[in-house]
Amino acid sequence: MSNYSINETQELPQEILDAIIQKKLVIFIGAGASRIIGCKGWDDLSNNLINLCFNTSKKNPLEGSLITFKEKESLTKIGDPKKIITICKKILEKNGFGEKYFQTLEESLNGQKELISLRDIYKEIYKIPAIFVTTNVDTHLHKQFAPSLDLVNVVYKENDFNRSVELSKIYQIHGTILDKDSMVFTVSDYLKRYNGKIKNFLEDIFKNYVVLFIGYGLSEFEVLDFLILKGDPSQKPGVKNRKYVVLPFFSGEENIHEFMDYYYSDLGIEVIPYAIDKNGYNQLYELIKDWNSQIRSKSPIIIDLNKKSDEVLSNFDPQKAAELFGYLRPNSPQEIYFLTQLGKIENPSVWFELLNAQGYFDPKYNPSGIEASRRIWLILIYLENFAKYTVSHPSDEGYQSLLGIIDSIIDYKDASGQRVENDFTEYKIFCIVFSLPSEKISDKYFEYFKDCLVSKNSHTLISSEISQNVLSKFLKKEDRKICLKLLEIVFDFKESSNSDLWRIQSLVFDSAIQEYYYLKYSKNIQMKS
């Protein structure tokens, strides 16, 4: 039985704090979390689908609506949202309106911008160092991991589930709205889904991890009941459990709280109540926010994570480094700090293989589209540091590793076969390439940077770098081949509608170039005299 009284916030159980430190906490996120930011719940979605079927005429309008008023009322009385969704989906598909089903589904999952800005519960959930599993198909948690909404960090296909879980992944056991064929909504979908790999995946979690359910009600647990019970066959009443669920109550509903305890204790779940008298169901956001404060104050892992980064960066140890990666969630403040500091260390070469194995250099992480203007690809700061180190400590292995990464980035094409345009990435790659000895700079790089200069974004940074640093560097080295190719890049106007006259002027009147020619001319005069 739960020992919690009904308050607005609760002390986070010590077992959950211990699980965070041991990387053994799994948070299950249900539809209740999404409702706080304006997404529709199961009941709303099922009612919307009933109304859609009633208000949609058949292909032959003379035959009336897809369902009659009587059928509409009968569907409403079923009371089970999953059954209703299953029936409505079949009705819509049978009559050739399957796309309306998905349109209604997408609209129900969008959320409301004003609510998201006011209380983004997913931002608070994301701060908790846990493994995230969700039965939601929306992308609101997904956006915390990858604002560009690629599926790199999302496990949602049945065959991709295994017993190895990672902090850097989201496990969407009911699929994702980004892949309509993967979604689980109908009864038959559930029967197919909860078998094989996903069943084994869940059973392993329930057996070996501390589990916290957020945003779940009784209807969601109808899906998970048999898995929770089968997940740990040795579970017996009265045995200390490793599962918790947060549930809303009004103050004074201790009797209802007790009734809920009867039900959930049979599933091996302890109820953590929170009072909704003041803020309603939005209090869940406040509860999670308060828990994050408790975690920061009580968990040494969170307090010392930046300190741990500094320690490992100053004294590299592969085992400690691998352990650190386990806590660095994508795009989190801790990861940003770590990657920024990587750009400053004296010997970046010892980190290269580990970073490569962790996928940090994978070009699919290069921000594209609107995200390209919002954030930079921080691993490039490390890569520039690695390039400087390689030039000052030359080795065939170092150059091979560096050029392999550069080539993978400039050769990368997105799903539509297009080059990813990111002005910061292109600028950094340019700086890295032209920090190398001339014999390492192949013709393919010049062709790549010609394409970059055609871009409306990249030409400013790259042309400025050419005029202020790179051209004068190779002029002083009297490297005629590189200088001519650089000038060819800058003066290539043939297909560039974005080329600006000022770019040439900045080269012609660049003080470094003028100084070079002045000194060379003076030297020639002195030799002749």
Structure, explained:
By secondary structure, the chain is of the alpha/beta class. It is 56% helix and 6% strand. A 7-stranded parallel beta sheet has the order 3-4-2-1-5-6-7. Helix 13 (254-266) links the parallel strand 6 and strand 7. The longest helix has 19 residues, at 458-476.
Properties at a glance:
28 helices; alpha/beta; globular
Q: Care to count the β-strands?
A: 7
Helix content: 55-70%
Report low-confidence residues grouped into runs of 5 or more: 236-240, 493-505, 524-529
User: How is the quaternary structure best described?
Assistant: single chain
Look at the helices and sheets and give the structural class.
alpha/beta
Largest sheet: 7 strands, parallel
C-alpha Rg (nearest Å): 29 Å
Topology overview:
Blueprint: H1 14-21, E1 25-29, H2 31-35, H3 42-55, H4 69-78, H5 81-94, H6 98-109, H7 113-118, H8 121-127, E2 131-134, H9 142-145, E3 154-155, E4 170-172, H10 187-193, H11 196-208, E5 210-214, H12 218-231, E6 243-249, H13 254-266, E7 269-275, H14 283-298, H15 300-303, H16 305-314, H17 318-325, H18 333-342, H19 352-357, H20 371-374, H21 379-392, H22 396-411, H23 423-433, H24 443-454, H25 458-476, H26 480-490, H27 501-508, H28 511-528
Parallel strand pairs: 1-2, 1-5, 2-4, 3-4, 5-6, 6-7
Helix pairs in contact: 3-4, 3-5, 3-6, 5-6, 8-14, 11-12, 16-18, 18-21, 21-23, 23-25, 24-25, 24-26, 25-26, 25-28
